[in-house]
Amino acid sequence: xxxxxxxxxxxxxxxxxxxxxxxxxxxxxxxxxxxxxxxxxxxxxxxxxxxxxxxxxxxxxxxxxxxxxxxxxxxxxxxxxxxxxxxxxxxxxxxxxxxxxxxxxxxxxxxxxxxxxxxxxxxxxxxxxxxxxxxxxxxxxxxxxxxxxxxxxxxxxxxxxxxxxxxxxxxxxxxxxxxxxxxxxxxxxxxxxxxxxxxxxxxxxxxxxxxxxxxxxxxxxxxxxxxxxxxxxxxxxxxxxxxxxxxxxxxxxxxxxxxxxxxxxxxxxxxxxxxxxxxxxxxxxxxxxxxxxxxxxxxxxxxxxxx
Length: 307
Description:
Strand content: under 5%
Number of strands: 0
CATH architecture: Up-down Bundle
Number of helices: 14
Radius of gyration: 19 Å
CATH class: Mainly Alpha
Distance between the termini: 11 Å
CATH topology: Na+/H+ antiporter like fold
Largest sheet: none
Shape: globular
Helix content: over 70%
Structural class: mainly alpha
């Protein structure tokens, strides 16, 4: 359980530091917005590029990833279906669907994979799937709905992913990995250094956002938050277990792998996306906070039952 506790402890400390920065006002009134823009436009694209440029893309073609993809699509689809009925709006529904299905495979998934699963590379398929498949699609939807969903020419719609720095960083990294191009050290090293700012910037911005915020589940976003957290914390790992065991016949370490990765909480960078597009910010913040808290006992139970 050391991996579960240490991973959460690191995240909690940085969020608390961000909260204290917000309380003391060290970064001024625009501190959170500056950190969010830094992460979205600069640091996160650099991190995604350097991560994917050195990745083995062959790991995405496996039964484990198929389980993850199916469970992700299922819980996201449930949220979207409810959102359509409740008329929560496209942008808000997109953020909610991400909070219900997009796991924290980076800064939390890696330490947990090391200490619980014994191999950090086991989160690579999930990380690649989210970066290559989920993120560009979600960013394109948010870009197209920004500004009230005004109609645009077809060529602008097709080029939407190329206007988003997150998608561009991901796709560029995939292109480098697929072609086998070696990025020179003088080019790669600054990108690695800049990319290292991404996770702390996201966590600090998240902590600052907690200043003056109400307790979770008190506002107008109570229903979508409850739905997103329930799907993320309970439905997704249960569905992953059912698919892995009953459909794909996974057992032992392979079964533990897919269930643990599916039980990870919603990723903190989802709050960055919500803040950037100014939609579903409360939904993202509360869903991330609650799913992170719930994932501790859920991961302990999963490790005890399947480990």
